[in-house]
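Dear support,

I submitted the protein below through the web form. The confirmation email said the job was done, but the results page showed an empty box. After a refresh the structure appeared. I'm attaching both so you can tell me whether what I see now is the final result or a partial one.
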Amino acid sequence: MQIFRETAELPQPPLEPVATLGNFDGVHRGHQAILARVREEAARREAPSMVITFDPHPRTLLRPEQPHRPIMSLEARLKRLGDLGIDSALVLHFDAAMAEMTAEEFIEEVLWEALHVRAMYVGPYTAFGRARGGDVRLLASVGRRLGYDVGEVEPVFIGGERVSSSRVRRAIAEGDLAGAAQLLGRQHVVGGTVVPGDGRGRTIGVPTANLRGDGGMLPPNGVYAAWAMLPEGREPAVVNVGVRPTFGESGPVTVEAHLIGYSGDLYGRELNLAMVQNLRGEARFPDVAALVRQIKQDIRAAKRVLGVG
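What the results page shows now:
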């Protein structure tokens, strides 16, 4: 997938894509319905498909008093969009100038002058431009004047409630990984780079991969069954999210994964953990021997959950 970071990087003549617009945090099943429509229409018109998105999330600037927790990092989001067959992405830096751009200016300067879009497909709740003044009706009204088409994609409902990024965040924050997976169409993924740790896991016979997180959302502290996704395949894993209280530690939350039966070197590699189910909460044990006994129980429980021998 081609990635353009600002309109200045776009080629000339304009790409004339079939596009959509939004944050696409989580790339959940509602997003996927829009993306499928964009792909289908792009193929019919023999045009490239494109997602126009923002970084950072507009809420970070517009509502600084309400800390925003992204479901996934920008890079993970872009990779997911590419995996779903989108040809290109335009990532617009959301700053004060962007926040002051009216919806009409955004359409004229970005969608038309920079891209010359052939069609736009959005959901009914799409809002953009200063004070969220733009919506599907404005897109269609200006489109009739400029010459691009607009389609509205119906939202997806699960359990009688609309699928949304807020709903996904709520499920993850509550530790409802099965619910999050239903909304996302896959397990919630915790990703990062494997970095050296203190080596304690190896000394007690349970080596762990320590993740420097990519900024995506973590579930509550605890122990989880997960799949470790590697280029060569997936490996069953037990994942600890927390502060390792048995060793008297506190401070920033860390993510450690024990890949069951895996003996390869992961240092410096990117590792994605598809989080399947919570096994237990974080606990402090009286000594290392008690911790090791519990870890062995966690490994057996993870194997049962993941259906491996």
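Response: this is the final, complete result; the empty box was a page-load delay. The mean pLDDT is 94.
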